[in-house]
Amino acid sequence: MVTTKIIPPAHNAYSYPLLIKSLLLSGARNAPEQEIVYGNRLRYSYRTLNERIRRLANALTEAGVKAGDTVAVMDWDSHRYLECFFAIPMIGAVLHTVNIRLSPEQIIYTMNHAEDDLVLVHDDFLPMIEPIADQLSTVKGYIQLSDDGAAATGLPVLGEYENLLAQAGCQFDFPDFDEQSVATLFYTSGTTGNPKGVYFSHRQLVLHTLNAVGTLGAYTGLPLLRSDDVYMPITPMFHVHAWGVPYVATLMGIKQVYPGRYEPNNLVKLFREEKVSFSHCVPTILQMIIDSDEAATTDLSGWKMLLGGSALTHGLASQATARGMQIHCGYGMSETCPMLCSTLLREADFQRPALEQVAARIKTGVPGAMVDLRIVDANGQALPHDGTAQGEIVVRAPWLTQGYLKEPEQGEQLWEDGWLHTGDIASIDALGVVEIKDRIKDVIKTGGEWISSLELETLISEHPAVASVAVVGVPDPQWGERPVALVICTATEQVDASALKAHLHQYVESGRINKWAIPREIRFVADIPKTSVGKINKKLIRENELSL
């Protein structure tokens, strides 16, 4: 233990806790009349946002919510969700963002495991909650969220959201408390077992927010979110706080547009009409946007898009770039709050034509400030940053979850040897650029060699007839595993398996892949299974392939 010098503070000095309430101060101060927009239904100012957050705090308190309680939210991306991001943790309660795309059994499990006390539920999700309400053992009441008049329900509803806010006082003195207090909770589904509860403290969320402000706006090579931008999330607010960007946008006081339920044509309309300049989403949503009818007649130039959640293929990135979109990639996971790395373009990249920048834009990027990231071998030994060595990414940063709720053994496994283990295989080059090669569980092991499913996907995606692709490994008695590709063709072009294999042979000849990496089987499908947050569900694909 290093001995350091500590000087006691003045007796009356204020020890400033890092609490979410502090993130509200500058937005309303710098841009009090800036807009918060909810689809085509509602718009109001930051001044009103702060008042509504105080009214919500009063309404929750009058409903019996106290510090330490857990409040669940089931809503589309809305102004209400943004208000809950602040009001619930600011009164000392825990915000549980329920993944509304889980199965009923998983929703029951997560809400009981979280010990939810109160549920704020949108009318659209009443049919989901009503049949399971008697199985939610800790829930004491509900607040109804309505867009078009409250729907009839047999739930013990305390009131409709807007009516409760109208009746609540507009002043609330948010208290100070320990910055290590849990602020938010959500559940991430793994490959086996029940979903795991990931939680973050006020301190972690404030530090992640402050870091993201710098990461997304301070660097010339990463000009994504600045004071004159218009922000619209296209990552569900139940998923890692919409990557934490609503906190960033509110701190900065920029215009925010919440689209409600994701519908590609509506998203493009909002982009056009509200002059949206920055969004973030998973690649599958980007593909849906580009393929939408509205996109066909809309100039998408200037739409800055941060992609994450799963690998962005060269083909999809090229499509977006050709439409004028500015593509960057980000890397993180639920347990990391999530931002760890992002694409950082250098001067030489900007000097090339846009389509020639794609290869640099789809790389995982460089670790952000305060992110200590390395790759290690199976024994935990650090590997060189030479662009060749491949190992598991392990990381330390001040905003990483410290474990899983009520599952200490899983938390110890996550934090083996004092590093958070991501389960991702990557290389790091001499400039510090990280390049994800695959998930440990998704890498294909054939004949003693490793094949990256992600690399195969990006190479297949470069064929102009391919709209979407997923590659998985399935058991093979001779080679251990063999790759199988699932392909969705574009609406305008078709291709057969032999043509795609011929397309891949050019990369064998150039030495990029070995000949045994070419999938023996290429299946053409109408849809590729996705997880609840829009990622390609390779676990389900493997299970389906084995059942054929």
Structure description:
It is a single chain. With 548 residues, the protein is of the alpha/beta class. It folds into three domains: 172 residues, 3-Layer(aba) Sandwich (Rossmann fold); 178 residues, 3-Layer(aba) Sandwich (Rossmann fold), CATH 3.40.50.12780; 104 residues, GMP Synthetase, Chain A, domain 3 (2-Layer Sandwich), CATH 3.30.300. The chain is 30% helix and 23% strand. The chain contains 19 helices and 25 strands. Strands 7-6-5-3-4-8-9 form a seven-stranded mixed sheet, sandwiched between helices. Strands 12-13-14-15-16 form a five-stranded mixed sheet, with helices on both faces. It has a four-stranded mixed sheet with strand order 2-1-11-10. Helix 5 links the parallel strand 5 and strand 6. Helix 2 crosses helix 3. It is globular, with a radius of gyration of 24 Å. The chain starts with 22 loop residues before the first helix and ends with a helix.
Quick description:
This protein is of the alpha/beta class and about 550 residues long.
- What is the assigned CATH homologous superfamily of the largest domain? ANL, N-terminal domain
Calculate the mean pLDDT score and round it.
Answer: 93
* Percentage of residues in DSSP E strands: 15-25%
Nearest-angstrom radius of gyration? 24 Å
Distance between the termini: 59 Å
Low-confidence stretches: none
Q: CATH topology of the largest domain, what is it called?
A: Rossmann fold
**Number of DSSP helical runs:** 19
